[in-house]
Amino acid sequence: MRRFFTLIFCSALGTSTAAVTWIISFFGYDTALLMSGIYAAAGGGTSYLLSKEIILFRFLRRHELTRKEYKYIQQNLVEAKAKIKRLQSKLSSIRNMRQAKEYINILVTVRKIYANTKKDPKRFFKAEEFYYKHLDSLVTLMEKYAYLKSQPARSNDINQSLKETSKTITQLNTTIQNDLHLMLRDDINTLHFELDIANQSLRNTSKKESEAIK
Predict the structure, then answer these.
(1) Is pTM, for the whole model, over 0.90?
(2) Per the domain annotation, does 22 fall within a domain?
(3) Is residue 57 part of a domain?
(4) Which superkingdom is the protein from (predicted)?
């Protein structure tokens, strides 16, 4: 969403600059039509690129990231998005209602971690294990589970493998929930701090009111 609005804003600014540059060149300085167009294109392009760089600079400064870190995070998010799509595609093969509910909850948690990172890229470093290990393991297990589950004739070994895989996926669900909690830990601590301050303020207000009544 941020990229979309950035694109719209920079494009609008670049187009406006190009139009103004053309008008000034053509009417103000009697420049030839072709040269006015070239000046307009150069002015609009420069305005577009400069505004885009300024917005990115301010975004990186607000989130305390370097360009290298931001690029690295974006690459990981692209890979994660593809893995989440693979994960989602396997949910349709789950027929057991209990398992389907559990796996949908897993998908919701995975998407939440991804969305939080998109919104605040610096959170990526609080969920590195999720992106490097847990998501990969989850996708691999879900794909193998779906493949074995789709077999028309299943041996005892296959059924045993399905049980073990399902158990491991359940354990991974707990692990991924912990990843989300770790990502949000600072927010939770900040909330508790704000609640303590608010409660202290309320107690002080109540105490003053009681003393005033006396």
Answers:
(1) no
(2) no
(3) no
(4) Bacteria
d(C-alpha 151, C-alpha 85), whole Å: 23
Kindly give, in sequence order, each residue whose CB lies less than 8 Å from that of residue 180, ignoring residues fewer than 6 positions away.
Answer: 109, 112, 113, 116, 127
Domains identified in the chain, total number? 1
Both structure tokens of 211 = 């003393």
Can you tell me the distance from the alpha carbon of 204 to that of 212, in angstroms, rounded to the nearest whole number?
Answer: 12
Q: How far is CA 150 from the centre of its chain?
A: 33
Question: Contact 41/18 with Cβ under 8 angstroms?
Answer: yes
The 3-class secondary structure across 1-66, one letter per residue, is CHHHHHHHHHHHHHHHHHHHHHHHHHHHCCCCHHHHHHHHHHHHHHHHHHHHHHHHHHHHHHCCCC
DSSP type of residue 80: H
CA–CA separation, 118 and 1 (whole Å): 9
Residue 107 lies in a domain: yes
Q: Residue 120: which domain range? A: 64-213
